[in-house]
Amino acid sequence: MCLYFWGHSNITLTRFLRDYIYIPLGGNRKGNFRTYINLMAIFIIGGFWHGAGWTFIFWGFLHGFALVLHRAWSSLGFKLYTWLAWLVTFNFVNIAWVFFRAKECDDALKVLSGMLGLSGINLPNILSGKLAFLNHYGIEFGNFVINIKGDNFIPIWLLFGFILILVFRNTNQRINRFRLSKDNIIFYGVLCGVFLFVGVMFIGSESEFLYFNF
After folding, report:
1. Count of CB atoms within 10 A of residue 65's CB?
2. pLDDT, tens digit, 9 for 90 and up, residues 33-75
3. 135 within 8 A of 123, measured Cβ to Cβ
4. Which 3 state secondary structure label does DSSP give 181?
5. Which residue numbers are catalytic?
6. pTM given for the model
7. Is 104 strand, coil or helix?
């Protein structure tokens, strides 16, 4: 699953690192140890490409280490259940992303501490009646963002995100299944025309470069 994630995330950068760094270094053609070194090298460089800071470099190191661990694990013949591999990858990527977004390592450690409940756990007041016994274990009720009329109803947004990820096909899957036919060629032709028109209409507008802050 970790390989699947990197194969479909930031595809342009991944291909560049593979074609111009990983393969010239020898790729996986010079033994396992050299392959592990090459994997670590391209991901540390990938982290440095995103920004000249230790948090970015450590983020790259984490992903490189994950791929090295995955390759070593597979070479020993071990295999995880698909759902467990997905769960491990999902949580690992979310933890690593904390370092990507943090300004300093101390900030990342504070966020991770909160994610693990080490800074205290808060539950919605609506659960206080049935779960009041949790007060004895340091769990409090209240101070939980749960405004159903606003944009911060976190549980609903999380559920919506999981449904999108697990139920619907992603862009790569849709491209692989895409076929033009007599039945849909007019529809896709009109759709492309609409996108072209919108693109031309906004061609003069300014947009901030994606990596402006890095």
Report:
1. 17
2. 889 999 999 889 988 888 878 899 999 999 999 989 988 888 8
3. no
4. coil
5. 50
6. 0.67
7. coil
